[in-house]
Amino acid sequence: MADNEAPAARREYPPPERHPWHGATWARLITAIDRLPHGLLLYGPPGLGKHDFARRLAWALLCDRPAPAGDACGDCKGCRLLAAGTHPDLAQVAPAEEGKGIGIDQIRALGDFLALRPHTAAHKVALIAPADAMNLHAANGLLKQLEEPPLGSVLILVSDEPARLPATIRSRCAAIQFRPPAGAEALAWLKSRCPGGVGEHEQLLEIAAGAPLLALELGTADFLKQREQLLRDLEAVSARRESPVACAARWQAMGAERCLAWLYGFVAELLQTGLSGAGAVAGAPAYLHPFINRLNFKELFGFLDVVSGSRKLLNGPLDELLLLEDVLIRWSCTARGSSKLS
């Protein structure tokens, strides 16, 4: 190395964040930490901190001197190895590239890891996230490991969409469901993390279906202004003032997954409001009014399926822009050919 060449920075892995809405789930699990099942499936909507919880549990299992509340001490040899990302008894399995799945070779390597006895801890821990990214061969390979678990091993699976996992995988894991926290708790946490004007935090939580971390992500990205553009695009496409192709390019720039997730929630809200009767329609938020009287249930339910299917295809080989164009073209057809929703 030349005298004036700085050494490469060592990557560090900070301790997992603790979220207040995990308190009851953590307390219930940590009391049985010595009797944990071999497989755990943490599931629920995105934005609830399931991955942070999984890392927190992995650290607790591999810590030499856990704190009274069950968390890792942060100072022992095991915690130092975890912080350096070099603990020999922790394996983390994730897609090798963004948009790709978890393949059979990764699960075979995990099997080799689990077959060895723990090096420094009482357990060997594997964290698989997102578990629903496993392809069929990978899932079948993991099933063998769940059916014949090596002694002392704990597999923690994290999933936003557990229905995409084979039933045989789900049945061999102890399922822990994560739900959005109480509104007051989520609002207080979000206000402590994200600046915003009057009513903006409530709007962000509403868009995020009560998930605090997703609301924080949306607030950081100034999504409330982006939502205004999305609504303008939907109205313009409906009225034939704008091409779906042009709108799709804007949506791609804002983030295809984020836009489609919002669109799914928006259409679901349209349906819920329309199905709730005339009173709900009259009291609906202002942003629903341009759409609520020009759509019918049947076509809107069909469009909701289109959006759901497109979100699943985003991680596949199909072109992202073409998917968005298809969704918006279908929206234009749905909006033009419908009778009133109410």
UniProtKB/TrEMBL annotation:
<dbReference type="InterPro" id="IPR015199">
    <property type="entry name" value="DNA_pol_III_delta_C"/>
</dbReference>
<dbReference type="InterPro" id="IPR050238">
    <property type="entry name" value="DNA_Rep/Repair_Clamp_Loader"/>
</dbReference>
<dbReference type="InterPro" id="IPR027417">
    <property type="entry name" value="P-loop_NTPase"/>
</dbReference>
<dbReference type="GO" id="GO:0003677">
    <property type="term" value="F:DNA binding"/>
</dbReference>
<dbReference type="Pfam" id="PF09115">
    <property type="entry name" value="DNApol3-delta_C"/>
</dbReference>
<dbReference type="GO" id="GO:0006261">
    <property type="term" value="P:DNA-templated DNA replication"/>
</dbReference>
<keyword id="KW-0239">DNA-directed DNA polymerase</keyword>
<dbReference type="GO" id="GO:0008408">
    <property type="term" value="F:3'-5' exonuclease activity"/>
</dbReference>
<dbReference type="InterPro" id="IPR004622">
    <property type="entry name" value="DNA_pol_HolB"/>
</dbReference>
<keyword id="KW-0808">Transferase</keyword>
<keyword id="KW-0548">Nucleotidyltransferase</keyword>
<protein>
    <recommendedName>
        <fullName>DNA polymerase III subunit delta'</fullName>
        <ecNumber>2.7.7.7</ecNumber>
    </recommendedName>
</protein>
<keyword id="KW-0235">DNA replication</keyword>
<dbReference type="Pfam" id="PF13177">
    <property type="entry name" value="DNA_pol3_delta2"/>
</dbReference>
<dbReference type="GO" id="GO:0009360">
    <property type="term" value="C:DNA polymerase III complex"/>
</dbReference>
<feature type="domain" description="DNA polymerase III delta subunit C-terminal">
    <location>
        <begin position="222"/>
        <end position="331"/>
    </location>
</feature>
<dbReference type="GO" id="GO:0003887">
    <property type="term" value="F:DNA-directed DNA polymerase activity"/>
</dbReference>
